[in-house]
Batch of 4 targets.
Target 1
Amino acid sequence: MVFAEFRNLFDKIIVPDKVGVEDFVDRLTLVTAVLFGLASLLVCTKQYIMSALTCYIPVGPSGELFRDFVNSYCWVHGTIPLKPNEPFPKSEEMWDEYDRIRRISKLCHCLLDEKLRHELRSQLIHYCAFTV
C-alpha cells in the first residue's frame, strides 16, 4: 500500500514524455538522488528535531536538564570513537591524546586543508605503528 502510493508519487515527479534522451542509468540516478534525499531527511529529523546524539558519561548528575546540557556539549566539542574492547580513558592526558588523534571532525577538514591532511596522515601512521 505504502509502496504503491510512493510509486504513484514518484511517477508524477518523473516526466518521461518531455525528456528525449533518458535511459535506465538516468532513471537510476534520479532514484538514487531521491533515496539519498529521503535518508538525509530522516537523519536530520532524528538529530535536530527528535533526540540528539547519545553521549556516554560513566558517572554524573541525573535529570533532564543535565542530559540536554551533555548533548549540547557533545555537539559543540565533538566525539571521539572508542573500539569495542578498548579501555575508557582515565586521565586528562589520555583524553587529550584521544582528542588529538581520533577527532571525528578532523576527517571533514582533511579534505579542505592540505596542511591538516599532512598532519592527519602523520598521526594516522603514528597511531597505526602503536596499535599493530
Target 2
Amino acid sequence: MMNKKMMFGAALAVAGLGASAHAGTVVIDGLGGPVYMQSTSIPGVFGAGTPTFTNAALNLVHDNLHADGITTDGLVTFILADTDNGLTWMTLVDDITIGSGAANIDSSLGMTSTAPDTGVDFINDVNSDITQSFLPGNGTQVAAGTFNWDDQKYGDAFAWANLMEGDFVSFNFNRYQNTTPGLNADDTFQFVTWNGSSWEVVTTGEFTNNNQFAYSFTVVPLPAPALIGLAGLSGLGILRRRALRKA
C-alpha cells in the first residue's frame, strides 16, 4: 500500500503532467512495469545537420538537467525532449566536461537500437563508432556500435529525433570490462521525465548478470488525467519495489 508521501508525490506528478498537455509522451516496457515519460522543449539543440550532435548541444542538454539537480556524471541518462527536429529521445552517456589535450579512451559501452525509418539520428561519439543503417523492406533502421570515451574529459550521446505517435523504439546495451568505473556499477541507467515544472528521475535500471540492459518504448497520445495518474503510481511502484528489493 502506498504511504501518504508517495500518494502526494503521485498527485503532484498528475498535476504537473496535466499542465504540459502540449508535450510528447512515451510508455516504456522492460523496466518491471509500464513507465510513462513526458517531454519539454529544449530549443537550439540540433542546429547542425544530421547526424551531428555537437558538444555545444550536448552541454546545453546537460545544463538543463543540472539546473534541476539531476546528476549525469557516471550514468546513462534518458530523456524525452521537444527539439527543432521534433520529438526526440536522447541517450546521454556520462557527463560531458571538455578537458584539455587529447582524449584518453578508458571507458566503453555497447549499444544497439532500432527505430522507424522516419526517425532522424544524431550522434556524439569521439571515436565515431556508432553507425546507422536502414533495414530494407520493413521500415526500420538500426544504430549500433560502441561508445568509447574518456570519463575524465568527455561524454557521448545518441538521439532519435522526428518521432511520431505510434513509433516503436528499442535499445539494448552491453557492459564490457571497462564500462566501469566510467559508469556507476549500480543504478547505471536513469530515466528522467518532465513533471510540468522541472526534470525528475522517474526510475533507474542496471545491467543484468549477463551484462545486458534492454528496454523499448512507444510514442503514445498524451494520456488523459486518470491515465497519467496510473502512470505516476506505476513509476512510484517500480521505485518502491527496487527499494524493497535492496533493503
Target 3
Amino acid sequence: CKSVKFKSLTSNLCKPYRFSEMSSFTEAKANRLAKHKQKDT
C-alpha cells in the first residue's frame, strides 16, 4: 500500500487491483497530484 496524502486515493491504492491498467492509471494520477501539491507548498 502506497502512502498518499489524499485520503480518497489512499483507499483505492490500498485495495488490490483487478485491472492492472486501472492501477497504473490511478497510481500515475496520484503521483502527479502529489508532485503538484509539493510545488504549491
Target 4
Amino acid sequence: MTSDTAPTPLTLYRGLPGTGIYSWSPFVIKLEARLRFAGIPYRVEAGSMRNAPRGKVPYISIPAEILYEDGSHPAPPVVMGDSTMITKTFIEKGLTNDFNAKLSGSQKLQDMGLIALLEDKLYWYNVCVHYHQFSIWMGGWNLS
C-alpha cells in the first residue's frame, strides 16, 4: 500500500476509510494481498456499495491505458468489481503471476474446493463472529 500523497494508478475501494485499517472482509483481504504480492502500487479509498459495479466491495478503479496497452481505451478509468474477476483480469493482462500455473489438475481442483469452502461457507461464520464481537463490545444486545 502506498501513502495517500503518492500518485498511484490503481485505487482499491474496500468499504473502510483510511489506510492501515484492517478489513475483516475475506474478499478485500484476498485482493489486497494479491496486489501486495505482485508489487502493484495502489491507494485505498472507502468506496460505496452503491457505486460498486457489482454492488459489493472490494472494487477497483484503474486507468484504461494499463489494461489496454494498445491505446484502444484511452479514458476514463475502468471500474471493476469481484475480487476473483479482478485477479483473473490481472493474470490475463500480465500484471500479476498465476500462482496456480504449476499445479496439477488434481491440485487445481483442491484449490477450487478450498476457495469455495473459505468464500462460500466460512465467510458467514466470519460475519457471525464479527457482529457477535461487536455486540459484546457495545455492551451486548438485549434480544428478549
